[in-house]
Amino acid sequence: MTELDQPLGSLPAQDHDHDVLLIAGSRPEVARLAPVATAFAESDRIRALTVATGPDPMAVHEAFESLGVPADVTQLLREPPGPHPAAIASLLMTRLDELLVDLDPSAVMVYGGGMTAVVAAQVAFWRQIPVVHLQAGVAGDDLLCPFPQEANRRVIGQLASLFLTTTGDAALGSPVGPNAISVGDTLAANPRPADLRFARLLRRVRSGGPQMVLVGLDRPDSLGVLASLPDLLDREPDIEIVVYGELASHGAAYPLLGHPRATVVRNLPLAELVWLIAASAVLVSDDPELVTDAPGLGTPAVLVDGPHIPEPGDSIRSILSPAVMTNVRQIIRAAPKPASPPSDGLEAARVEQAVAWMFGLCPSPVLSPTFPTSMTDPATNTEV
Predict the structure, then answer these.
(1) What is the number of structural domains in the chain?
(2) CA 288 to CA 220: how far, in whole Å?
(3) What pTM did the predictor assign?
(4) How many CB atoms lie within 10 A of CB 237?
C-alpha cells in the first residue's frame, strides 16, 4: 500500500509478539531485503513489514513487486528531494520518524550504507528502537570510498544492536559490535534467472570464465557506444557482452546477433537484471538511476554522456560517448572482480534466525545443523 491509499492503521492486525521493519531506499537494498522478508514469512515467528522509501520510493516499490515481495508500506515524499545528501536526508528523516511513531516496531533492519539506511538507523536510535544492520563490516578503511556509503556504514555501526555480516571477518575501519553474526549475502536467495542463456552465462562467470560487460542503452545518442561493441569483442577475447534496452532492436545491434560471445535482448526483468549487474565486471548504461544502483551490487558503472559529478572512489564514471570503450577496457583489465562464494541458499534463513535469537525466541543465533548443507550454484540451482 501507499500512504496516499489508506491510513497506516489498516495494516494487518498484530498477531506476533515482535515485528521488524525492513527499510529499503534503493534497488540494491531491495535485492537483499526481499529474500529476508520471505524468510520471516516462512518461519512465522516474527512479522516483517517491507518499507519502500528513499529518494524514488516508487522505483523501490516496483523493485519489491518484481522480486515477488510486495511492499507493505510505500512512503511517498511530500516533495522531490534535491541531489545533495543533506537534502535527501532532511526529507527522509521526518517521514521515517513519523512511520516509526505510527508503527512502533520492535526493530528496524537496514542494508549497507545508503542515505536511507543511515537516516533510518539514526531515527530508530533516537526512538530507542533496536537497529539490525545487514551487510555490516564489509567495506574498506577509506572513509571516502565509496562516498558517502562508507561513512554512513560507520555511523550505523555505532548505533546497531545486531550486526549481520556477509563474511566472517569485519573490514578495517568498519565498527562491528559484539553481536556480529556471519549470514552470507542474501542476494543469493533471490529468484534465479528464468532465461537459460543468462543462467549458463552466470555459471561460466562464477566458475572463473569470461568477464561480463552489461550494456543497457535506450537513447538514440548512445548509438555510437552500441556500434563500438563489436570492436570491443575483437579486442578483448576474454569477455562476453549482454546488450539490452530500446537500442537492442536498432540496426546497429545486428552485428552482435550472431556473435558467440554476445547476447542481445530488448527487455530484462528486474529479477534477472539484478543478477547480471552483480556478476558483471562493468555496467555501461545511459540510465543514471541504474548506474547509481550498480555500486550497491558491487559493480563499477559507466554513465554514457551523463552529468559529470566527481565522486571519491570513482565507482561511477560519466563519460562522453566516444571515450566509453577506453574506460571499459581500463576497468576490465584491472584486477578481476572477486568471485562470489558458493551459496547454500540459507542466507535469508540465517538472518531470520539471528533476529529471532535477538528477541529471545530461540537459544542460538546459528541455524540448526539439521538444515541442508549442500552448496548450490544460484545461477542454475544445482549442487556444486
Answers:
(1) 2
(2) 15
(3) 0.85
(4) 8
Q: Which amino acid is at 54?
A: G
- Please provide the size of the chain in residues: 384
What DSSP element (H or E) covers 326?
helix 324-333
Q: Are 117 and 88 in contact (CB under 8 A)?
A: no
| Helical axes 270-279 vs 196-206, angle rounded to 10° | 20
Can you give the residue range of the structural domain that contains 269? 209-333
Looking at the fold, whether 276 and 307 belong to one and the same domain comes out as yes
User: What nine digits make up the cell of 338?
Assistant: 572477486
Q: Look at residue 87 and tell me if it is in a domain.
A: yes
Kindly state whether residues 13 and 158 are assigned to the same domain: yes
Beta strands in 269-364 (DSSP E): 282-285, 301-304, 316-319
Comparing C-alpha atoms, which of 47, 6, 53 is closest to residue 27?
53
Dihedral of the alpha carbons of 106, 10, 118, 189, in degrees to the nearest 10: 80
The rounded Cα 357 to chain-centroid distance in angstroms is 25
Q: Which residues, 6+ apart, have CB-to-CB distance to 234 below 8 Å?
A: none
Query: Looking at residue 149, which CATH number applies to its domain?
Result: 3.40.50.2000
pLDDT digits over 334-343, tens only? 877 777 778 8
Q: Residue with C-alpha cell 489498516?
A: 10
Q: Where are the alpha helices (DSSP H) in 104-215?
A: 115-126, 149-159, 196-206
DSSP 343: B
Contact between 341 and 32 under an 8 Å Cβ cutoff? The reply is no
Question: 132-174: per-residue pLDDT in tens?
Answer: 999 865 556 677 777 788 889 889 989 999 999 887 554 444 4
Within a domain: residue 203? no
The residue with cell 545528501 is: 85
How many Å apart are CA 212 and CA 45, to the nearest integer? 40
